[in-house]
Amino acid sequence: MLDGVSLDQLRTFVAAADEGSFSAAARRLRRTQSAVSETMANLETQLGVTLFDRSARYPRLTTEGGVLLADARAVVSGVDGMKARAKGISGGLEAELAAVIDVFFPISAIAEVAHEFRGQFPATPLRLLVEALGGAVQPVLDGRASFGIVGSLPVLPSGLVAERVTSVDFVMVAAASHPLAGYGGLIPRDELAQHVQLVLTDRSDLSAGREIAVISPSTWRLADLFAKHAFLISGLGWGGMPLHVVGNDIAEGRLVELSIQDIPPGGLKLPISAIYPIAAPPGPAGRWMIERLKQCSNEMPGKWPMEKVFSTSVSGPGR
Predict the structure, then answer these.
(1) Contact present, 203 and 219 (Cβ < 8 Å)
(2) What three-state secondary structure class fits 125?
(3) What is the pLDDT of residue 306?
(4) Do 220 and 72 lie in a common domain?
(5) What is the spatial distance between Cα 192 and Cα 316, in angstroms, rounded to a whole number?
(6) Are residues 195 and 134 located together in one domain of the fold?
């Protein structure tokens, strides 16, 4: 029975989970609600697992359904990625390559790859945008960029495919003069809530209604990573930063890494992915750059050594 599970069933499963109801999934897939309900019932029969609890007004994922949803997403994403790559490879060379880069990604890595890009594609102009959160996704959605290198938006809009590129270390810091810097032991959330948290804000509406890694009810919001870095150094608040940006500040005593409850020592790993429209994947130049960035991140021991990327990352304004 499991061999009969189809890609269409998995797409419908993902749509139903994302939309929160079979009727909303039907509208997204341009089908009838009865067709979606029947597809889900058939998938549950084939898997031998109840994916949705239908006892309430809206279907809710069961515990087993939540586990299998991650597998379904991986399968759908893998197939979409394969189709997109094939389409890009078979297409012609881009007249111009436009890309958007998440502000958390080391820009010096982009510069390093751009040197090789100029040799590989001398007739293809390169245009780069640097944005944060949904601002790094919006140019891909509206066609201003053929792909994005993003890592800070937890929910990707439908119609886009993502490929894992690397990860960036993300740490919570405060100035050495800040009260939190002298806190002994793990800092609980109720203590953090008593101090201003500096938060990178979204220029787009894609993260509207969602707070990403915001702990304190008292926040100052900045749309520029360079400004946030300067405010942290000045002791105006605490907040999260990519380790490659603040590594030297920590080593030289200007900033202190905070030990926070529920955050592992050394901070978090922020996944970085390449995203692009399923229906319009990058051409040969864009595909080359994505693959080269993957290769570049794997070649660098310790991912992104701070001494290599720090000077470029904080020498100018970022989003």
Answers:
(1) no
(2) coil
(3) 37
(4) no
(5) 29
(6) no
Is residue 236 included in any domain, yes or no?
yes
Please tell me whether residues 141 and 184 are part of one structural domain.
no
Residues ≥6 apart with Cβ < 8 Å to 190: none
> Is 275 found in the same domain as 162?
yes
Residues 249-302: tens digit of each pLDDT? 999 999 999 998 778 877 788 889 999 999 889 989 999 999 999 887 665 444
Residue 185, judged by CB atoms within 10 A of its CB (0-12, 13-18, 19+), counts as: exposed
What average pLDDT does this structure show over 61-68?
92
To the nearest whole percent, how much of the chain has pLDDT over 90?
Answer: 51
Is the same domain home to 206 and 189?
Answer: yes
| Rounded Cα–Cα distance for residues 45 and 40 (Å) | 9
- Domain range for 201 is 169-269
Q: Is the pLDDT of residue 220 over 50?
A: yes
Amino acid symbol at 61: L
pLDDT given at position 243: 92
Separation of alpha carbons 216 and 239, rounded Å = 10
Q: Which of 138, 167, 165 is nearest to 149 (CA)?
A: 165
Domain count, the chain: 3
User: Could you tell me which residue, 90 or 125, shows the higher pLDDT?
Assistant: 125
On whether both 290 and 146 belong to a single domain, the answer is yes
Give the three-class secondary structure for 137.
Answer: coil
318 domain residue, yes or no: no
The whole model's pTM is what?
0.66
101 Cβ contact list (under 8 Å, min separation 6): 107, 110, 128, 129, 130, 131, 136, 148, 149
Task: Kindly report the CATH number assigned to the domain that includes residue 149.
Answer: 3.40.190.10
pLDDT (tens digit, 9 = 90+) per residue, 45-54? 999 999 999 9
Phi-psi region of 178 (alpha: psi -120 to 50; beta: other; left: phi over 0): beta
> To 5 degrees, how large is the angle CA 72–CA 78–CA 80?
100
Residue with tokens 């960035």: 293
